[in-house]
Design a protein that fits this description.
4 copies of one chain form a homotetramer. Chain A is an alpha+beta fold. Chain A has 22 helices and 7 strands. Chain A is globular, with a radius of gyration of 26 Å.
Chain lengths: 443, 443, 443, 443
Amino acid sequence: MGLPMIFDSLKRSKPSQPTNRDATVRRLVQACHELLSEEGEASGTTRAKETLAQYAALDAAQRVSLFQALRTDFSPNPEKVLEAAHAYAHEPSSVNLAVLLHAAEPPRQELLRRLNRAPGGTHAIIGMRVKLLDALRKEPELAQVDDDFRHLLSSWFNPGFLELRRVDWNAPATLLEQLIQHEAVHEVRDWNDLRRRLQQDRRCFAFFHPAIASEPLIFVEVALLPAMASEIGPLIDTNAEPGDATSFQTAVFYSISNCQPGLRGVSLGNFLIKQVVDTLSREFPRVREFCTLSPIPGFRDWLKERVTHGFAATDKRATPKVRKALATVSPQFAGLMMSAADLRGPDSPLPALKRELSTLCAAYLLGIGEEAGTSSNAVTKFHLNNGARLDRINWRADESDKGLKQSLGMMVNYVYEPKHIERNHEQFVRGRTIASSAVEDLI
Amino acid sequence: MGLPMIFDSLKRSKPSQPTNRDATVRRLVQACHELLSEEGEASGTTRAKETLAQYAALDAAQRVSLFQALRTDFSPNPEKVLEAAHAYAHEPSSVNLAVLLHAAEPPRQELLRRLNRAPGGTHAIIGMRVKLLDALRKEPELAQVDDDFRHLLSSWFNPGFLELRRVDWNAPATLLEQLIQHEAVHEVRDWNDLRRRLQQDRRCFAFFHPAIASEPLIFVEVALLPAMASEIGPLIDTNAEPGDATSFQTAVFYSISNCQPGLRGVSLGNFLIKQVVDTLSREFPRVREFCTLSPIPGFRDWLKERVTHGFAATDKRATPKVRKALATVSPQFAGLMMSAADLRGPDSPLPALKRELSTLCAAYLLGIGEEAGTSSNAVTKFHLNNGARLDRINWRADESDKGLKQSLGMMVNYVYEPKHIERNHEQFVRGRTIASSAVEDLI
Amino acid sequence: MGLPMIFDSLKRSKPSQPTNRDATVRRLVQACHELLSEEGEASGTTRAKETLAQYAALDAAQRVSLFQALRTDFSPNPEKVLEAAHAYAHEPSSVNLAVLLHAAEPPRQELLRRLNRAPGGTHAIIGMRVKLLDALRKEPELAQVDDDFRHLLSSWFNPGFLELRRVDWNAPATLLEQLIQHEAVHEVRDWNDLRRRLQQDRRCFAFFHPAIASEPLIFVEVALLPAMASEIGPLIDTNAEPGDATSFQTAVFYSISNCQPGLRGVSLGNFLIKQVVDTLSREFPRVREFCTLSPIPGFRDWLKERVTHGFAATDKRATPKVRKALATVSPQFAGLMMSAADLRGPDSPLPALKRELSTLCAAYLLGIGEEAGTSSNAVTKFHLNNGARLDRINWRADESDKGLKQSLGMMVNYVYEPKHIERNHEQFVRGRTIASSAVEDLI
Amino acid sequence: MGLPMIFDSLKRSKPSQPTNRDATVRRLVQACHELLSEEGEASGTTRAKETLAQYAALDAAQRVSLFQALRTDFSPNPEKVLEAAHAYAHEPSSVNLAVLLHAAEPPRQELLRRLNRAPGGTHAIIGMRVKLLDALRKEPELAQVDDDFRHLLSSWFNPGFLELRRVDWNAPATLLEQLIQHEAVHEVRDWNDLRRRLQQDRRCFAFFHPAIASEPLIFVEVALLPAMASEIGPLIDTNAEPGDATSFQTAVFYSISNCQPGLRGVSLGNFLIKQVVDTLSREFPRVREFCTLSPIPGFRDWLKERVTHGFAATDKRATPKVRKALATVSPQFAGLMMSAADLRGPDSPLPALKRELSTLCAAYLLGIGEEAGTSSNAVTKFHLNNGARLDRINWRADESDKGLKQSLGMMVNYVYEPKHIERNHEQFVRGRTIASSAVEDLI
């Protein structure tokens, strides 16, 4: 038996509780202490079940009070940590390391592991984190509690434990309605729309975890096409005839959506995309190109900001071409704030500004004017951080209300080229964005 | 994004390698560093797969060399830990806690998490630990590496992620032959023997983990009987007629075996027994008693030791009755060392010593003469630590060679009484053994 | 080896073909002869596959031509039958019976059995029969061909080979959309409507056959309620709150629909209802009453007929009450022909005629005025033939357009009382309808 | 509704019963009549269940009495048949054909169809037939009853309703032990033996029917080899190393066994072999040769007969070579009747007679001396009737006791060549055996 097991048997959490907790929360905090105790260890899953039942009965304020207790009562003891750190610095032996790790690990981590033993425990913990993330907005000091949730969930939802499954029209309706509910990029209008997205020239893949097997964690929708798509309309046209399998050369990832807000910060999308690339490569050896057709949320807001404040004079990345485009667009900016309907209409200023807006969009995506050196756009960051290349900006790619409002109808293709993924990512982390020459030329 | 994620992107492991490593191990250690790096993060599961493949090609000496590298190159940096501990002691903020946890956690934990991403990763890691446990016997300083394996495996094999399944004669032969192979208590002689153990008055339950779904982790064999069993023979008699379901009042756990040596120290048996008690209670509401019929390994060796050295004169727990029993047995001890065949024969000294040996066996199981206050017997410790009660010592309960050799044919029943489990466990941890009055009377 | 096997090896079908068949059909007829021959027997399933492929390529006229060929070329030879019948009459031995059966069975039966050997053969044969039933309308002499299809399909779709499955919201969308498509009584408006019909206070059961496992054969929708339903609206109200399981006392079968027109005449509904009664009785021991809420198609047409022609003066079953009701309704009959919207409106003649129309509806359902003695209504005949009792006529039970058009808004409950089913059926076959006293009182 | 349905409602079976039936059988016969009646039709599956339960309680004599009743009371009425045959001969209309078929079909067929409706009905009917086949040996007039069982079972177990499944070591033990039990050619000695037969260079395929899904109907064992096997030993050697998949060029069917004696006469083996050839062709495109390695039961008995009686002088097929071989063997025939051990020993007459015995074995397999023109050996008839070619006689191919006793150690390869199967079969039916030139040369 290793040393930590000895330490497991020591009481690690303090029993005293502040007086501003109501009785219900106090009882629950007490139950948590007991769950961590010797008796709790022996109870199998009974105490874990009971403790989760107590949690389920809390109201919103009580939940926040509990989360505060997790922070104050279930954190490492700084003195003991310091003592252990000294001992380890003095002699980095196995025993001293074990003592250090035991002292440094917040007891709430073991608490979560014990709660997880209950039937449905994983599900409950994910639900608890949804509430914690809510609370975190107002109470930033809860970040350390959330760190422990995220740390454990990341370990438990390691890709090695996930199952990639294709979802098609043979899937249970209970699963399909979750796709409809969680699709966050291009709304699924109805069941016919969904059916079209699951036909033979489309693919939908989702990650599942055995502990919550009936709920997808994240899913991606893919169109198999003869070439890289430049507009979204035909991809989600319910009446489009399915394409012929012999013509497939490109797989276009046109939507990726998370289903579990309680898994925020747990890396899933990156692995999903790469496993789907693998899977499709095997099923369709002739498909060589893997890319996205992605929205550009935030471009119009960014543009407004630029129109108002311009680029810093010292910013070398803001090329004359970019500055000139901004100068051209600025006077007409009011026109760009039209309703989506007007932007689609005959008096739209868009056609006349195609060149300049494309340049400015490239600037936005390349992070020009950003301190970090890379774009502030979350979608861009996601794909570039995954190792994709910024490949093509598409004009009039999404003329829906949403598309016009967020990016004046433009969309972007990111390309995943397996052999360059590591290098692209490494560059991105160092503050540089890998883009195609077509995009570079725009600026 | 929480703070630890930022830290994740920093290099945490040192690139320099000692010169006594051979080139193969050096390459693998380098691969491990890269897997932990930015590029590794972006590679999806490719690098993990490759790294595991490199590991699989190592020979025994290279594996030990690798484990040494995991200890020397992938441990926390004592100075950084101390620095972080000081900062946390000075101000226990979320940021300081995050920095502390990041500094204190051995980088090999993250390495294992990344290796686990590969297909078959969990299986490989368990296999790696089997080898590590081997190496550990000669190189005790590897304990700290093993601590990290055990810590992660304990988290991943949390009961909330395990599936309890009944195994019956409908199970795949591939699974059944694993039971035959791993049965550690009462050998399964052949397929007929196994079939009898899976009939309607017997139960076999096993835990499975989805990541290694075709291999049982641990299994327990149960006999459903009208009363607590006092000998093993009839329970594993291939020709015994199956009992009638209306007569079942007692569930006797007569064998529990681990199938995964790589999961040593990960608590499984405790949860298995309690979930099986639950499951059987629901299926057979009339079954009220849950007990074991357990072997007593080590009794004869213990007895030899006592015969040689006696009990300390100051040991108050060694009652006069116990001392007298020892005094009676000692002169005849040579006879007790006979072969099993002779012990079964007409000249066996056993019948004449039934009372004294029962007393001494009770003393052994109650931990009389032990510093810890509780028995040194691993089976006893397992059940008492799980909250069972030491209930009855059975004379002539197992007259097989093995049974006579280890315990002169005696076996013991431990009783699991749900409402006393927590208390019994708590007492045991404090150095006391809960036993029935029948057992107490023996001493 | 029995005698018929010897006969199997004789050529049983005539090779000559009439000249008005086109070449494609001639080739297919030839293929059928070969499939029945020795070579065909040896080919495994190859020839069956090829023959079905030839059939699949036929156009409508060619199909009729093929069906004619099945009639003319694959019927029993009258002379041989007569000869065999004489021999059997002379000596009813096993051999003579075997010869008789071989002579009398139309060779097209064996042809269908051989076609069925092909992968997908059963499905193809059912599809073939759909076309045959079409053709039969214009070519009544094809009845004898259809008799053989029905005979074989009845044997193959024997209830012993069917699987009863509950269909709920967990079912594949591919299955659920078949329910939407085939629901023939109360149209499923959309997926929300369907979901409501599959919630916890509703049940849907379907029969499946392993050879066409992904297609339901027939399904029934059931509402679990505190009492017998008297109107359809609440049962299919998408927004209705699900009822509480503790309140269920009655199971109301409110819709039963066939999915396979090619199985016409194969008894499925009768067995479905009785198996569902069994299944629900076991799941809900407190549910004691099993009834339908059924439409009354044809009542308004029947009424029109009666208004025009009255009852025969000699018809003793047409009671004075019935005759009087008809006399009262007749002058206002034009009003009853209003549009459904008007019938729902303030000037509707319905309220004033409730009593008379109920009486006439009872007369319709009891078969008053019918030669057969029982109702000509197919739904009524189905349930009464299954052994149900005519229990209650419900006024304003279905005010949909369809409900008003076919039955002026009335619906009827048939009650299935297990212990009276056989007797009720037997009475019905003898021309009598078992009805409740409430219904009897109406006339 | 077709005409036969009208006739279904007429009583078809006679109620009077002979006096020598005991009361139990009389009650059961009465139940059968009722099951066929109107009330029976309405009862769903209840009466079928009850009738089967009555049957299950019969003793052997009562069963025979019941089978007699099925013959006497549930046969077609000769007068009605004759009448219907006359009508049909006079006018072969649909109605007259329907009347004819209804009159000619033994009512026990419909009885079996109705019994089949009960849960487990198919299984019970197959079991009933096992007993009927037993009874048939003593009471040949029951053949006509058996004809109806076989007719219905052949229709129900049509290959279109069977599922071909590969059985490997992952199969449930309950299934595997049925293989051990039913293996009829080369006994499975124990579970190790079975495991070897299911490894990667071996295949086992079985047919299953959904109505008795847990029981195989028939199975075949196949060895994948570089070339046609000439002896059985290496194929069933438990210790043989599995062959390498790249070397597979020949699939050798070395055992085929029926599991359901109640399905005698239902063609299964023929379809099984052909579907397995198809399946293996797809999995192993490089495997081009499909053959058997088959025992030659009856050769030694045949030889004894020939030694005693010789060939008819007029038999042209008995060539001089054959006659000469017989002349050579005859004087030494006593030696060939030695025990198997002696035949394997140093004084065995076998080596000296290799040429002659091979010639005589070829004669036996080619049916020389048989009136039918083809061999009387059931295995030979089975494969040749399936369209195989007699390819090679193997000396010292099976030196087990059984192999020496039945065929003096010889075995034979039949080759299935897809493109010649139909022709070979057709020749065989005409009394000719297709053999390789190697075999022809032997005679």
